[in-house]
Amino acid sequence: MDNNNETQGGVLGVGDRIKILRAAQNRTMQEVADACELSKSMISKIENNKTIPSVATLVKIAKVLGTNVSNLLEQEGWSKAIVTPRIEAEGGLVKTEKGYSIFPYASEFHGKKMQPFLFVVKKDEVIPHLLSHDGEEFVFVVDGAMKMQVGDSEYLLKTGDSLYFNSTQRHGIMPVSDEVTYIDIFV
Question: How far apart (Å, rounded) are the C-alpha atoms in residues 70 and 88?
């Protein structure tokens, strides 16, 4: 599976969909970059599928373009049920500029109300950061342990633990184990 999400066989990448939506609104890359507090160069890299943006960056871009993350990630078509084999999710992980790897589940499901992600984070690769964005999140730790800061509180989450929170609060994770795998659902 192609990890840089470039257009192949007529399938549009996330960057392609962002570019089409921006152009349809007659907006420049600079306008979108300024509204997202990003550089024009970063928007260009994203639109040309040269980099995979973090979830927080996708949320900012989606908001600026008047859509949601699900619409940026979904492929053409409609489905009633999406099955994703484990090997497909693990093989489809892409590394973001913040050092963690993500896989968006059910990207081909049109008009969904939530966006579930598989995250795999290695202790020595993640860049510590806090972010906030509109919505709510549900985090479930599949394997490993991590500290999650939400606002002024810090939570230690281990295999099988979960956390639900308002994502307008500044939040971030730091692996405690060498690697942590978790599901994060954005609404």
Answer: 19
CATH of domain 14-73: 1.10.260.40
Helix (H, G, I), strand (E, B) or coil at 69: helix
Nearest-angstrom CA–CA distance, 48 and 181: 29
Q: Rounded to an integer, what distance in angstroms lies between the CA atom of residue 145 and that of residue 157? A: 6
Q: Of 12, 113, 125, whose CA–CA distance to 70 is shortest? A: 113
Q: What share of the chain is helix, strand, coil (3-state, %, to 5)?
A: 25, 30, 45
Tokens linked to 136:
């709510």
The neighbour count for residue 161, using CB atoms within 10 Å, is 15
Q: What 8-state DSSP symbol labels residue 35?
A: H
| Tens digits of residue pLDDT in 93-126 | 988 888 899 998 887 776 678 889 999 999 999 9
The answer, as to whether pTM is greater than 0.70, is: no
Annotation: CATH topology of 86-186: Jelly Rolls (2.60.120)
Where along the chain do its domains lie? 14-73, 86-186
Give 173: exposed, middle or buried? Use CB within 10 Å, 0-12, 13-18, 19+.
buried
List the beta bridge partners of residue 131.
Answer: 171
